[in-house]
Amino acid sequence: MTDLSLSNRTIASKPAPPNAATAFRFPTQWIGVAPFFIFTIMFLILPTLYLVVGAFQDGNGHLTLDNLLQLVSDPSISNAYWVSIKISFWSAIIGAFAGLALAIAIVRGGLPNWIRSATLTFSGVASNFAGLPLAFAFIATLGRVGIVTALLRDVFNLNIYAMGFNFLTTAGLIVVYLFFQIPLMVVIIVPAIDGLKKEWGEAAATLGATQAQYWRMVVVPVLWPSFLGTVILLFANSFGAIATAYAFAGPALNIVPIKLYSQINGDVLHNPQLGYAIAFGMIVITGLANVFYIWFRTRSERWLK
Amino acid sequence: MKSGKFWAWVVFALSAAYFFIPLLATFEFSLRLRRGVHSFDAYQIVLGDPRFQATFMYSVIAAIFTIILGVLVVVPAAYWIRLRLPQLRPIVEFITLLPLVIPAIVIVFGYIRMYGSNSPLPFLASDLGASALLVIGYATLSLPYMYRAVDTGLRTIDVRTLTEAAQILGAGWSTIITRVILPNVLIAVLSGAFLTFAIVIGEFTMASLLNRPAFGPYLQNIGANRAYEPAALAIIAFAITWGCMSLIQILSRFAPKSANRPN
User: Which has the closest alpha carbon to B83: B180, B192, B193?
Assistant: First the structure.
């Protein structure tokens, strides 16, 4: 309360006496944010809008819905969307629950302290370890000549490839994607679990709540918005991922980002309008997911301040 | 409580197995190039490959330019918003989150269409232009991380008081930014920079579609054509990511403790 610096809002907001600077106020006011806005408009917003507008135009610039209809009517494209959505959905759900379990284990499980910090550091690394190297690691592990494949075959007499295992299936890609999904969940959800105040548990106990009641009536309601929000972020995270899957099968694999990649490279269809439509579909799906994410995040922040 | 601890160990052990078996298996696999014995031959071949050196250097330089561009775009904006334009904060936060919403492949597709050889701004007409566009694309991808790192750094210092003090002492805007604000948020900027570095170094989609001789396309090429070298490259990539994250952790210990914790 004795803070008399100019950062004090009530003082700072009082009208300052006019001075020379006022005359040049307009340029200085915006000059700091100008590079940011010029950059993001030129290299983020306009290129995206260009594709969105293109999705509604035919080759001569006339308005049309044909491109978007093709997304639905062309079975290979609608199938790619469906596979991508399935992979993203399940890798997000499984990753979120596994990550939540791991986060609860290291925060509240009574494990030694070094395990918590080691897990958090590792999660920071693994959540950024996506792309081609991740695919190489899994090929060396579970590929046809991978070490775990050989071990299972020689020691346990289990031939996983004969059993139908394959990286190029939905299940195979989910197993691989979990390698970055689970750590991302841990990184995001640990602060939320830390935010559960000890006093709430004590208050619940004082009021006679059992451990199960405390979890059901306090922990779950407080955590679910940030949990659900993170699920959606994980969904968007794997929906846009291409490099890992591309390393397994190249352009052959039928998921949306690889479809778009081939389309841009001119391998398959070479119809830019259709490319715009595929891109537009991706933006709509991840955009919708993120609208929910932002909504849930603001809800969860109310509790965790 | 006892059973809780038991389950915590079970969960931890299962997770550790899922994460460490692939890494250990990859490492073991990478040592198998020479028949019958373990050796570091795969690493020697990879590290000695002139294309490895060339593409890796290309990506390192691209990462450095990305970081410089990111700092130039983000720091003044984050500073100015704290100082003068807090009403813009929600808009800027929304924009910096967009690269998480719009997949990288969509962004680069937009670039190819908008900045092709026949466009008013023909970035893709020359090699240098295309490389510049790659750096720009990387800076866009790193925007969410860079902005948050810098904004968190600015939160721990009293921007307004520092600026006013510097102004009273006669400093101009460039002096204030370079000699007062930047040193104070340097550690935050660096942690954003290392994260950017980790993201850029193996990035595949943008580099490949812009046809740049970067590390990501090289990785893809090796992965498609060799057996043991990709495993060695995966271990190297993991070590680089690990190095970047460790540097962020070490740096965060040096970060200034909040001077004006708003209680």
Answer: B180
- Nearest-angstrom CA–CA distance, A10 and A188: 36
| Cβ pair A43:B199 closer than 8 A | no
ipTM of the modeled complex = 0.85
Contact A119, A102 (CB under 8 A): yes
> What's the whole-model pTM score?
0.84
For chain A, positions 181-200, list CB contacts with chain B under 8 A.
182-183
Q: In whole angstroms, what is the distance from residue B18 CA to residue B31 CA?
A: 21
Burial of B115 (0-12, 13-18, 19+ CB in 10 A): buried
Residue B68: C-alpha distances to residues A39, A50, B73, B254 (Å): 14, 27, 9, 22
B30 interaction partners in chain A (CB closer than 8 Å): 140
Nearest C-alpha in B relative to A137: B26
The tokens of B244 are what?
């970047």
Of B21, B223, B260, the CB nearest to A247: B223
pLDDT of residue A87: 93
Is the pLDDT score of A132 beyond 50? yes
The candidate with the shortest Cα–Cα distance to B42, out of B34, B50, B52, B54, is B34
C-beta atoms of B95 and A44 within 8 A: yes
* B97 class by beta-carbon count within 10 Å (0-12 exposed, 13-18 middle, 19+ buried): middle
For A84-105, what is each residue's pLDDT tens digit?
999 999 999 999 999 999 998 8
Q: Quick one: DSSP state of residue A57?
A: B
Of the candidates A251, A44, A264, which has an alpha carbon nearest to the alpha carbon of residue B103? Answer: A44
Q: Are A178 and A167 in contact (CB under 8 A)?
A: no
Which helix (H) or strand (E) segment is A226 a member of?
helix A220-239
| Nearest residue in B to A104, CA atom | B8
CB contact (8 A) between residue B7 and residue A260 = no
> By the CB < 8 Å criterion, does A298 face chain B?
no
Distance CA B148, CA B154 (A): 10
A-chain CB neighbours of B248 within 8 Å are: 124
CATH hierarchy code of domain A78-302: 1.10.3720.10
The domain limits of chain A are 78-302
Using the beta-carbon criterion (under 8 Å), do A250 and B22 form an inter-chain contact? no
> Least CA distance to A13: which residue of chain B?
B84
- CB count within 10 Å of CB A217 equals 12
Residues in CB range of A7: below 8 A, 6 or more apart: B158, B160, B161, B260
Determine, for residues B103 and A239 on separate chains, whether the beta-carbon distance falls below 8 Å: yes
